[in-house]
Structures
1.
Amino acid sequence: MLLKKGTRGADAFGVANTGINKPLIKIAAHSMQVLLLCEDNTVYSQGGAETGLLGLGPVDTWDVSQYCRGDEHEITFSAPQLVSALNSIKIIDIAAGGHVSLFLADNGTLYTCGAGYAELLSEDGIEDHFFTPTPVPRETFDDQDVIKIAAGYGQALALTRMLSLKTNSLGNNQLYGYGSNYHNGLLQDDDVEDLYEFTKLDIPNVGRVVEISAGMQHFLILNAAGQVYGGGSNAYYQLTVPDASPFHTLRLLELPPIKTLYAGPYCSVFVPFTGHPINAGQPNWRELDVDLIEEPCEVEVMKTFPEDVVAVHGITHTVAVTASNKAYSFVRELNGVVEFELPAKARGLKPILASNYEHIYLLFVDERSSVLGDCLLQRLEQNQMVDLLMITND
């Protein structure tokens, strides 16, 4: 496969201001929305607002001067908007899904907004409460703190930390799922097509969980030993098994020890501690046609990606960041990988990736001191690669 160098000329990089003027610590994005978490724990959002994913409150309270386009059925904010309903809450994590946005507070309370899979429409349209971040009742999670969240196109996950009242020590994690129950991927119940609220999943003891990721109709769990468990749809072999049958229960995947992973819409990407990243499933889902539904992709070692990958992500293209301060994007229409040299000041910082249909966002965070507050933005237009833009908070 071909390796193409990305350009860094005057036309390759541009400068834009986020308009927030404060350092960012997390970016989350999906098909409709981009969520921004700032160092002072405030949250901003931008993108499509009509199904409540931005958390901006009832429609009649919005600043109409900020509309980019649309009418009452299609409203897009082109600039980040403050999610004022969360101002008094210390938010420490965010997740953006195709049908829901998640906000995790420092006290373990989970807030959600977006129309989701619920019965959305009344005679007057979508109900107001879908537009405002609302706490999930703690009894939903058996009065336990939520410690990790994930959201994909079809599913959302919340991981809780169990506390044993008998020994006053931490017990096994519990996982709760929300969204598509296609092929009983979340809950083993033939009568339940979708989960309209977070529901406890029956999972084995997988040890200490360090990462969770949700795709279209499958999800992944990574434990501290580097083992990966998967559940849900395997239609494209995204759970690594060359059999399109779904996983009705969580199963241990046969992989080398893994340090990080990502569940895309119809694929999974695994980064081992040693060796090249591994792709399972169809990485370019916007190219899919209904006629291709029975044509899964074989599990593939991505040898055109280097062995020092530290982060992966991508809805329409798989993107990787390496310890050697480079970014790589696999582009199927080029049958290869595009390589970009990242700015020198990003070296040694933690990369945080997020993506939607149009852009891939790359935020670098200095975990040792403060936040760098810069993003690298990779534009994808009509599923084609173009070069990098720099966004700065200055």
Note: The two ends are 39 Å apart (CA to CA).
2.
Amino acid sequence: MTDRETLDRARLLFVGDTQGDKLAREVIAIAERAIQKAVLWEELADQRALEIDALTAQQAARWEQVQAEADSASPYSYAVEDGTQ
């Protein structure tokens, strides 16, 4: 049984006007809000992970570009003859 199903069954159980039933309904409402927050946090975490992956890929591509530019501009990037002909 899922948490949602358990809360639905509990809500049907505590329908009276006693203090215990009122308190149980308040606890059920707190649990429902906690479930909603957990779903939102999970969605946010997934979104942030995608953003981090995209930024990491951009950074890696830019680093490769910078390295290639530096290698081509290096004064040591000319061919050296080894003297064997």
Note: The two ends are 81 Å apart (CA to CA).
3.
Amino acid sequence: MIGQIGNERVWRVRLWNKDLGVALVTALALLAGTLLMWRTETATRSFESPDATLRLAYPAHWVSVDSLSDVLLKVEDPQTASLFKTTLSVEQRDIDPANPPTLQELLDRRVEDRSLLTGYHFLGEVETTVAGQRAIASDFAYVVQPIDEPRRPALPVVVRAREYIFVTANHSFYLTLAAPAAEFDRLEGALARIIASVEAP
């Protein structure tokens, strides 16, 4: 009771315990949702090359797609909000162990090959490490026309890509992530996790 008006008593309704329960249930639901989202975003699928020279992990919801190029792996993110889907590709090339090419030589060859892409523009390079090996990462951009059919309206898509090149005793490897330019920054974390998972025994 908190007071009395005339002959009637006035009582305070205690809601503190109920409010605490609602807040606790809400907090638990938010925590569960956050954990589920984190698990979904970080769940991975493993890949190993046929000759066991390369292993890595990529996001579990990405799906395999066909490629016209000679690649070990090509997967894409079907949830990309663009006609051009975010794509990860892995290539392997044999090298001469007695006369291995330098990373700069391999990069120069790739730049020459990529120059045939529509709107190709080299954005820069940086030295790094992949699977404990010296590597070079290069960024570039180009333009694709996802739907190239007469009378079907579709705007070209500006693509931004990052390619990691590294060399082992007998092979050179090329790991390339390409995504719509507007999506690329958001994928930095996923790309870092992919590169961190790479093993080249």
Note: The chain has two domains: 3-37, 44-197.
